[in-house]
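Shape matters. Shown next:

___
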Amino acid sequence: MGSQATGSAGKIIKNSAWLGLETIIETIVFLVSSIAVARYLGPAKLGYFSYINFFVSVVTRTSGSGLASVTRKYMSEFLALDQPGTARAVYNLAYRYQLLGAFAITALGLGAVALFGDPAFRLMSCILILAIVPGAMSGVLAQANSAFEDVSKNTLSAIGFLVAYGTIIALTIVFHWDLVGIASALLIGRMVEFVLRMVPLHRQLRRLPLDPLNEELTSRIRRFCIDAFGIQLLMVVVWDRSEMVFLRAFSTVEQIAFYSVSFGLASNLLALSRTFASGTGVSLMTEAVRDPKRVESIAGNASRYLLLMVFPVHLGAAAITSEAVRFAYGAKYLSAIPVLIVASLLAIPRGFLEIPEILLRAADRQKRLLLWMTITGVVNIALDVLLIPRYAAVGAAWANGLAQSFGIFALWHQSRRFYQFSFPVAVAVRLGLASTLMAGLAWFLGRSIPGLPGLVAAVGVAIPAYVVLVKVFNGLNASDRLRLAPIGRKLPGPFRSAYMAAIEFATPGAKESG
């Protein structure tokens, strides 16, 4: 039993390290490339590109939620039961249906572009739509790798995508390939990712036996697909850029660009908290089934650490938004400043989505999750209709953020019906005060020192100031020193020393806590 636990912990650490590496590289590449593309295209062209790409991302993500999630769930189940032949059959079924669906949706999309698309952007639109096929298929491959408890192949293939994408983006800007080049970067990147995932996975699968699927299992798979697809579709409506549909109807393509840029940057701010939440989710899902009494401890500690990360990142980003947008994007995107401030602040609740979502799935309450996501979707659309015609991109940011906050509050309330745990309100107040004071200091420095030096000074002073304020407001416990120390051992030398010094300073010692 001990060796099994050790092996499981080792896999979690290994997979978390791969996921962390992928997140870091992806965040850097997408942030740099998005700034370069925004400056290169300008708000009008970027707005139209973002509008078409929104539909491509919706199709890709929803396609990857039904059959792809089935792949992971049922392959994991049968591999754990030592039935590899059935696991392979599940994969074959999901892969075949996904391929047929991807081709059908792509054909419909190309037909719609041919009939209704703007002739000036028709080629770009067709290239983007063609990216649906490798993007949707990569979802099945990625979940199959996860079922084998090896995400390294997903990370390596994702790095291949990012290298290809970044290279084509750079060439597009140098040689002025315009929107066609930007769209081609996505298509070529997805094709590289698909091939890098497919070849090693299919080689591994060919070594497994192949058993037939019975009708009862096939019916279970269909039911799971329908629920998962519905949940993901609603997730896209509420947690993605669905406001661009209303911006297109009630505003201008420039407002679409301002909202798209702001939403993308606000999402990047969640990279660290999402990585932590994903790692926590593995243990939370397991313990919710194995020992429900441990949910309170895991959820409570996870919430505290999420507060420790989310508050300073989002409040600090809002404080330096004006200077950052002026420096990175230029004068053409000044109208995005209030949008990004609202998006950054209202994205704070998104850091806490995974905890109630995982608990509802663990309690086998997927339909309840679907119900509340539907209600949240209705709230989101109502706010879109109310706010976007009058306030454009700023109204879109308010609508999306308020709907998210409502949905996450509702999911927390629902999940507490099945598990005993609470949100650490007192810690939230203390860390909120520390983060607010830190953000005020960053705002003052950014406004007082013009240009890049002001940004560097704001960030450079804000980080140590936050550590001091966490100490002053008792934001951490003595036990957090032991829990947070292992993270430092995985950092490079100079960062490791600074991290460990900060943790030792911010956390009270045994005498202080006593």
Q: What stands out?
A: DSSP finds 20 helices and no strands in the chain. Residues 50 and 211 are 44 Å apart (CA to CA). Residues 1-10 have pLDDT under 50 and may be disordered. The two ends are 36 Å apart (CA to CA).
